[in-house]
Write a structure and sequence with these properties.
434 Repressor (Amino-terminal Domain), alpha+beta, Arc Repressor Mutant, subunit A, four-stranded mixed sheet
């Protein structure tokens, strides 16, 4: 977005409209073509100095005013916004929104738009939100917009398989995709040097374009290493230039970089978890009469993938091929003391489902399977030296709501720090379509719990898992009591007047 072109265009447009000049009239006064004037106002053309001087005379203003970054009171807030980083935070083109159209809309009601933008900025400051938070929120919205299924990436994976004659059922994933990286792109894989450098034990991989080497942390599982190799292959095959070189991303400084990182990750998961194979796996699950956690975990061994890859792939395939689009994906993390549970990743399709992340430092409901399974794994580790992973399913009935979700969760120790624990959950809204797909929903032994979003906002009485008092609910009740008392006082005075 060329801000100087747009600012000049806004000024000329406002001056023309203030003087009630049509394009035809301004064209006659300046000798400039109507189409050229239109392009200037839309921020598509920036005229040479002699033409700007001609426009200044025709609009009865100064040349310096047109070329400066200063404007009158009405336009200045919009110009300040254009000059700020605010619009850069929003990937407008990704959602089919033209920046010039948005700015044109702003020009129609600058006071209201400026107040709205100021409100958003204040919310960002109050909750310590950064540009990175907006980029991630935009990516989640983009996934929702596409129902988390990207046909161009699925086609790219298919194209790679055909080009290199890969059969996902037969080939050794690691050796095959490493071979493609080496032979097609000249990229070597190094599993040793990354672990020898201080402060890099948490870095899972790093690609050096100068050395044409993918450095991988050798402490990772085979499934994690396969994912990282597949991801680098995705960057190369898709020719994604604006990209991070380290995993995980240290700094999210642009939406394009975050989006390309997502595309490469999606490519890798789709490569290692073949679409047709996952469709067949879901069809097999549809024959289960009872929930079986061990059979669910067997899927990980069958494909040699991580729990996150499996759950993410289910979130790709279920909406597109089974019409199950009301779903959410959550990843939780906690330290060895389990004092605080952090939601480190979330995605919601079709609507904002419960549960969802909050930035208010509230305590997430401990009845969620996501947290319950982490706690269960910790107990198994302490009592039986069990390493995990473990899996389970739960029907989550949300308190004071008619919504229930089937939640499938896998909990495991962190690969980097085994004393820490993560859980991955996919939640599926229970409706007639889901009940037809998964008969095990009728299993009487399937765990069912009434849940809420956070302890602070929960009215469930005698909750055995409560981690904090329902202070928000208590405050709401106090406010309602004040309203009720004021209402009584108001109507008592009316009654006194009537009786008097």
């Amino acid at each position: 977005m060329d801000s100087l072109k747009i600012i000049l265009g806004l000024k000329i447009q406002q001056l023309r409209k203030d003087q009630k000049l049509s394009y035809q009239q301004l064209s006659e006064k300046t000798g400039l073509a109507i189409s050229y004037l239109h392009s200037i106002e839309k921020g598509k053309k920036y005229p040479k100095a002699d033409k700007i001087l001609t426009l200044a005379k025709a609009l009865d203003t100064e040349y310096n005013y047109l070329v400066s970054l200063d404007a009158n009171k009405r336009l200045q807030p919009i110009i300040d916004l254009i000059q700020s980083d605010f619009l850069k935070m929003f990937p407008l083109e990704t959602f089919g929104i033209s920046p010039s159209k948005l700015i044109e809309l702003m020009a129609e009601a600058p006071d209201k738009v400026n107040a709205f933008i100021s409100t958003i900025i204040k919310i960002m400051r109050n909750y310590q939100l950064q540009g990175e938070d907006f980029f991630k929120a935009a990516l989640r919205s983009y996934q929702d917009f596409k129902e988390n299924y990207f046909i161009e990436l699925e086609d790219a994976v298919k194209g790679l398989r055909e080009k290199f004659d890969l059969d996902i059922k037969q080939f050794d994933s690691s050796a095959a995709i490493e071979g493609i990286l080496r032979e097609e792109y000249g990229i070597e894989t190094d599993r040793f040097q990354l672990g020898t450098l201080a402060h890099l034990h948490e870095v899972r991989s790093f690609f050096s374009p100068q050395e044409k080497t993918l450095f991988i942390n050798n402490d990772l599982s085979l499934a994690q290493q396969n994912f990282l190799i597949g991801k680098e292959l995705g960057f190369q095959f898709l020719q994604l230039k604006d990209r991070p070189y380290e995993t995980r991303m240290i700094e999210v400084d642009s939406f394009e970089k975050l989006l390309n990182n997502f595309k490469a990750s999606y490519f890798s998961v789709a490569l290692l978890l073949d679409k047709e194979e996952i469709i067949q796996t879901i069809l097999e699950m549809s024959t289960w009469k009872k929930w079986d956690s061990n059979r669910f975990l067997d899927i990980l061994d069958k494909y040699q993938v991580t729990s996150e890859m499996l759950v993410q792939r289910l979130a790709n395939i279920l909406p597109q091929h089974f019409g199950i689009s009301d779903l959410f994906f959550l990843r939780f993390y906690t330290g060895p003391d389990q004092e605080k549970f952090e939601m480190t990743k979330e995605m919601h399709l079709s609507q904002l489902h419960n549960p969802y992340a909050n930035q208010l430092n509230e305590h997430y409901c401990r009845r969620w399977l996501s947290i319950y399974l982490i706690q269960k794994l910790k107990t198994l580790q302490e009592e039986f030296n069990f390493e995990g992973p473990i899996a389970d399913a739960q029907i989550s009935d949300f308190f004071d709501s008619d919504r229930s979700y089937l939640c499938l969760t896998i909990a495991k120790p962190s690969q980097d720090f085994p004393q820490n624990t993560t859980s991955i959950t996919i939640g599926l809204l229970i409706d007639e379509k889901l009940q037809q797909l998964f008969p095990f929903l009728d299993d009487p032994d399937l765990m069912t719990k009434q849940v809420n979003n956070s302890c602070e906002r929960c009215q469930i009485s005698n909750c055995e898992s409560r981690a904090a008092e329902p202070v928000v609910i208590q405050l709401q009740k106090e406010r309602q009591m004040v309203k009720n008392s004021l209402y009584q006082l108001k109507h008592r005075n009316k009654n006194v007047e009537l009786n008097g």
